[in-house]
Amino acid sequence: MAQYAQTLTDAEINTYANTILQNADLMLALHDFFEGEPSHESCAPVCHQLFDFYTSGPRQLRQFAVDLLPSMISCYLTAASRNQVKNTNEINEITSKLKGFENCANSDLV
Protein backbone atom coordinates (compact mmCIF):
# COMPACT_ATOMS: atom_id res chain seq x y z
CA MET A 1 0.00 0.00 0.00
CA ALA A 2 2.74 2.45 0.93
CA GLN A 3 4.57 1.97 -2.39
CA TYR A 4 1.30 2.10 -4.32
CA ALA A 5 0.16 5.24 -2.47
CA GLN A 6 3.35 7.08 -3.41
CA THR A 7 2.26 7.03 -7.06
CA LEU A 8 -1.26 8.32 -6.38
CA THR A 9 -2.48 11.87 -5.95
CA ASP A 10 -4.40 12.81 -2.81
CA ALA A 11 -7.63 12.81 -4.82
CA GLU A 12 -6.95 9.29 -6.12
CA ILE A 13 -6.18 8.04 -2.61
CA ASN A 14 -9.43 9.53 -1.31
CA THR A 15 -11.38 7.97 -4.18
CA TYR A 16 -9.79 4.59 -3.44
CA ALA A 17 -10.50 4.98 0.27
CA ASN A 18 -14.15 5.87 -0.37
CA THR A 19 -14.53 2.95 -2.77
CA ILE A 20 -13.10 0.44 -0.33
CA LEU A 21 -15.17 1.75 2.60
CA GLN A 22 -18.38 1.46 0.58
CA ASN A 23 -17.60 -2.01 -0.80
CA ALA A 24 -20.13 -4.11 1.11
CA ASP A 25 -19.05 -7.33 -0.63
CA LEU A 26 -15.44 -6.86 0.45
CA MET A 27 -16.47 -6.06 4.01
CA LEU A 28 -18.72 -9.12 4.15
CA ALA A 29 -15.97 -11.32 2.70
CA LEU A 30 -13.51 -10.10 5.34
CA HIS A 31 -16.00 -10.67 8.16
CA ASP A 32 -16.53 -14.20 6.80
CA PHE A 33 -12.76 -14.64 6.54
CA PHE A 34 -12.25 -13.88 10.24
CA GLU A 35 -15.24 -15.98 11.27
CA GLY A 36 -13.82 -18.92 9.31
CA GLU A 37 -10.84 -19.37 11.64
CA PRO A 38 -8.09 -18.36 9.19
CA SER A 39 -4.68 -19.98 9.21
CA HIS A 40 -1.59 -18.07 10.26
CA GLU A 41 -0.42 -17.96 6.62
CA SER A 42 -3.64 -16.37 5.36
CA CYS A 43 -4.23 -14.12 8.35
CA ALA A 44 -0.84 -12.38 8.38
CA PRO A 45 -1.09 -10.47 5.08
CA VAL A 46 -4.69 -9.45 5.75
CA CYS A 47 -3.86 -8.06 9.18
CA HIS A 48 -0.78 -6.25 7.88
CA GLN A 49 -2.86 -4.64 5.12
CA LEU A 50 -5.51 -3.56 7.60
CA PHE A 51 -2.83 -2.05 9.83
CA ASP A 52 -1.42 -0.19 6.82
CA PHE A 53 -4.92 1.09 6.06
CA TYR A 54 -5.32 2.27 9.63
CA THR A 55 -2.02 4.12 9.69
CA SER A 56 -2.02 5.41 6.10
CA GLY A 57 -3.92 8.60 6.75
CA PRO A 58 -7.28 8.73 4.98
CA ARG A 59 -10.13 8.58 7.48
CA GLN A 60 -12.06 6.15 5.26
CA LEU A 61 -9.28 3.53 5.30
CA ARG A 62 -8.93 3.93 9.04
CA GLN A 63 -12.68 3.41 9.44
CA PHE A 64 -12.53 0.33 7.20
CA ALA A 65 -9.96 -1.27 9.52
CA VAL A 66 -11.87 -0.29 12.66
CA ASP A 67 -15.11 -1.76 11.28
CA LEU A 68 -13.40 -5.16 11.16
CA LEU A 69 -12.17 -5.10 14.76
CA PRO A 70 -15.19 -6.94 16.23
CA SER A 71 -14.69 -9.83 13.78
CA MET A 72 -10.96 -9.91 14.47
CA ILE A 73 -11.48 -9.94 18.23
CA SER A 74 -14.11 -12.67 17.93
CA CYS A 75 -11.71 -14.73 15.83
CA TYR A 76 -8.97 -14.29 18.41
CA LEU A 77 -11.22 -15.21 21.34
CA THR A 78 -12.52 -18.28 19.54
CA ALA A 79 -8.97 -19.42 18.86
CA ALA A 80 -7.96 -18.70 22.45
CA SER A 81 -10.82 -20.81 23.77
CA ARG A 82 -9.49 -23.70 21.70
CA ASN A 83 -5.82 -23.15 22.61
CA GLN A 84 -5.07 -22.18 19.00
CA VAL A 85 -3.83 -18.62 19.52
CA LYS A 86 -0.75 -19.39 17.45
CA ASN A 87 -2.97 -19.07 14.37
CA THR A 88 -4.12 -15.61 15.41
CA ASN A 89 -0.93 -13.91 16.57
CA GLU A 90 -1.38 -11.26 13.87
CA ILE A 91 -4.84 -10.40 15.14
CA ASN A 92 -3.47 -9.96 18.64
CA GLU A 93 -0.66 -7.85 17.23
CA ILE A 94 -2.89 -5.55 15.16
CA THR A 95 -5.41 -5.03 17.95
CA SER A 96 -2.58 -4.18 20.37
CA LYS A 97 -1.05 -1.74 17.89
CA LEU A 98 -4.40 -0.11 17.18
CA LYS A 99 -5.03 0.29 20.90
CA GLY A 100 -1.59 1.89 21.23
CA PHE A 101 -2.34 4.30 18.40
CA GLU A 102 -5.69 5.22 19.95
CA ASN A 103 -4.10 5.74 23.37
CA CYS A 104 -1.50 8.06 21.83
CA ALA A 105 -4.16 9.97 19.90
CA ASN A 106 -6.31 10.34 23.01
CA SER A 107 -3.39 11.50 25.15
CA ASP A 108 -2.66 14.23 22.57
CA LEU A 109 -6.19 15.54 23.11
CA VAL A 110 -5.75 15.94 26.88
Automatic annotation (TrEMBL):
Pfam families: Hyccin. Its main location: membrane. It is found in: Cell membrane; Cytoplasm, Cytosol. It comes from the Eukaryota. Keywords: Cell membrane, Cytoplasm, Membrane. GO terms for cellular component: cytosol; plasma membrane. InterPro entries: Hyccin. GO terms for biological process: phosphatidylinositol phosphate biosynthetic process; protein localization to plasma membrane. Belongs to the Hyccin family. This is Uncharacterized protein.
